[in-house]
Amino acid sequence: MREQPPQQAPPVQRLRIRYAKRGRLRFTSHRDFSRAFERAVFRAGIPMAYSSGFNPHPRISYAGAAPTGSASEAEYLEIALAEVLDPDQVRIDLDASLPDGLDVLDVVVSPGGSLADRLQASRWLIDLDVDRDRAAEAVAAFLAEESVSVERMTKKGLRAFDCRAAVVTLNVADPAAEVSRTRLDLLLEHTVPAVRPDDVLTGLSTVTGIDIGGAPLLTRSAQGLLDAERTGVRDPLAEA
């Protein structure tokens, strides 16, 4: 009979972390990031709690990762520790151990419960090479539809789904001095199947025939709980 592996001690502290993907590091895949983060944990000397079994691994839970190629100011994960640490020092040590562009922004003690359950929606900023008035017309036409079917290749093959139902709000943002392109402000509810901002762009083209132009820049500016008015998201790291 194969000898059972020793059981690991339970975690004594759990920390929730918000991090950003910026610049060229937005092209980092979730798998690449998870490898970089585990190396950063090791370099920073963070005393991680480990899973039990024949192949123990550090207890890291990822939630709501943005699609590869999109920038983000609101990515989240949770780590389990074997010692109680100061969250702010963990933030400093981890940020110093990650490459520039993968930046640790906040670290707080987990109050318990599911982190994923606190990630109900995302606010996206989408910068396009499209005439502003034409974009406004396309947005109005899209929002007037009850449903907009789009297709996307998934692990299970080509799948059709309604991208309109997940859109809480969508508008053309006011021009900003630092943005030369037309910017869409999109509040997207997390649904099953998941609807991504590029699916919404496909939906805009499907409804109106608008040419999105060159590669859009997608930036997740916030992720969290939908507020009571369904006009924005609340910080998932804040106390309920």
What does this structure look like?
The chain is an alpha+beta fold. The protein contains 4 helices and 11 strands. It has helices at residues 30-44, 87-97, 132-144, 197-208, and strands spanning 13-21, 60-63, 71-81, 102-109, 121-128, 149-154, 157-162, 167-172, 182-189, 217-226, 233-234. The strands form 2 sheets. Strands 1, 2, 3, 4, 5, 8, 9, 10 and 11 form a 9-stranded mixed β-sheet that branches. The chain has a two-stranded antiparallel sheet with strand order 6-7. The longest helix is centred in the N-terminal third of the chain and has 15 residues, at 30-44. The termini are far apart.
Note poorly predicted spans: none
| Count of beta strands | 11
On the 0 to 100 scale, the average pLDDT is 92
Q: H/E series, N to C?
A: EHEEHEEHEEEEHEE
Number of helix segments? Answer: 4
Task: Please report which band the strand proportion falls in: under 5%, 5-15%, 15-25%, 25-35%, 35-45% or over 45%.
Answer: 25-35%
Largest sheet: 9 strands, mixed
Ends distance: 49 Å
Helicity level: 10-25%
Fold blueprint:
Layout: E1 13-21, H1 30-44, E2 60-63, E3 71-81, H2 87-97, E4 102-109, E5 121-128, H3 132-144, E6 149-154, E7 157-162, E8 167-172, E9 182-189, H4 197-208, E10 217-226, E11 233-234
Parallel strand pairs: 3-10
Antiparallel strand pairs: 1-3, 1-4, 2-3, 5-9, 5-10, 6-7, 8-9, 10-11
Helix pairs in contact: 1-2, 3-4
Key structural traits:
240 residues; alpha+beta; two-stranded antiparallel ribbon; 4 helices
Summarize the structure.
The chain is of the alpha+beta class and 240 residues long.
